Amino acid sequence: MKKIIALILVMITALSVVACGGGGTTVTTTEPTVTDAPAISPSDTTDSSVTSAPEEKLEIPEGKFDDAEFVVISAGQVAYDDFSFTDAGTEVLDQAQYMRKTTVEDLLGVVINIVIDENKSGVGNGSGYKRVSRAVDANDADYHIGLIGGMDVSTLAYSSYLVPLAEAKYMDLEKSWWDQNANTDLQVMGNIFFTQGDITAAKSDCTYVIFYNKALGREELNGEDPYKLVLDKKWTLDKFAELCLAVSEDLDGNGTMDMEDRYGLYAWDDSILGMISAAGQKVASINADGEFELTIYNDKVLSVIEKFGNVAYNTDYAIQYQRYSNNGNVREKWTNDQALFWATSTFNTSSMREMDSDFGILPFPMLNSEQTRYYSTIPTYNSQFLCLPSVQEDMDFTSIVTEALAYYGRTIVRPAVYEKTIKGTYFRDEESIAMLDIIYDSFIYDIGQLHRIGNMNSLLLNMFRAKESNFASIYAANSTIAEQQIKAVNNGYRKVIDSWAD
Known about the structure:
The chain is an alpha/beta fold. It is about 40% helix and about 15% strand. The chain has 17 helices and 16 strands. It has helices at about 1-20, 50, 90-110, 125-135, 150-155, 180-185, 215-220, 225-230, 235-245, 270-280, 300-310, 330-335, 395-425, 430-440, 445-450, 455-465, 470-500; strands spanning about 35, 60, 70-75, 110-120, 145-150, 185-190, 190, 210-215, 250, 260-265, 285, 290-295, 320, 340-345, 360, 385. The strands form 5 sheets. Strands 8, 9, 10, 13, 14 and 15 form a 6-stranded mixed beta sheet that branches. It has a 4-stranded mixed beta sheet with strand order 4-3-5-16, with helices on both faces. β11 and β12 (about 290-295) form a beta hairpin. α4 (about 125-135) packs parallel to α5 and α9 runs parallel beside α11. The longest helix is centred in the C-terminal third of the chain and has 31 residues, at about 470-500. The radius of gyration is 23 Å and the shape is globular. Residues about 1-30 and about 35-50 have low confidence and may be disordered.
């Protein structure tokens, strides 16, 4: 009943906003309209800072578009569906997505459609790249915006298939519904070609996190409180490893530690990449000249590999479960209290529905206490970013609808994702809610991983899978190729940026 009341309040507010949206069939050239937007009722949530509308207002021109079609292409290793909802459904997030879609359609007089192409067979030149590049090469404005996998969108960006987002007049990337960390980390030579924000709920489905079995923690950690460690900035890789080494039990008594036993840590293969990002380190970074620079080989990265390897490779206390034929049962084993920590992503949050024991969520740890902040990120294979294909019939139209979708994503969808789906449904304590606040405010984006510089992503994964730690030799064997690729990528971006300058 509380959900129904909250959604009714949202609908009433949304309709009142739409009613004031102005008439006509085209965008006017008058001053932008300043619009308030609805939010899920604060009485039905736990954190008013998330549910209330942001201080900034939606500023777009007054007018409607006479039922013009607005097409979104969602494509990649994972293709998230944010816009296909034709009714409210039964899930709170589906209801919010439907509400956002209809609010923007009514406000602007548009029809929003989405094309979904999930293809796990290719990256860099996968389904997202092919869909957008083919349309642009044919000079067809098939798609107004793309939500494209990270590796594909990177290739599109330096291959002249995307619009620099500064060309989108009514997209204000400084507003809170756009991720400011993405705008900083993904800016190349002063230009942003793709970004993240509240236009999609994708980030909430695939962020690196550590799940924590609180029941086991109370039994095994002698009063140590991981939540307090996080808040006190003492949640470091050394402390995390120390706590992982507190739990080990041969549950079936066969003398061999395997998937049937209890561990301090379940280690996902990709967690090594998450740990490197959590230390604030990147395969490649943008230097003072705005260009790519190889930055993966340094003392901090070597320290992460050594420290995390010391616990993840210890088969008495940790299990790299993907190396086992029955790894598909990992969710069942987790809900059966067979691990203290699980280094994974929010993709596995749904597993928590079946868990009887108290559980929580934590950010990946800092490298050491000298680090000033936590860093969260998205596994590259699971990421999607907003971009604009370079063939557009009406850039003003595209930018107006995009900005509205992002704004209402912030005020309608985000509360449903954050409060109801994640906070209200899965996590049962205020401490875990505080952890989510830290996690989602701490994003870092590695343009080196996204552009697959030197294939370092795969090299690091393969090293971790083989329980190796000698990254120095791997880097030495591949750094020349990485530097050559960086040179090619920098040249590609220069040509693209020069073409737009002309």
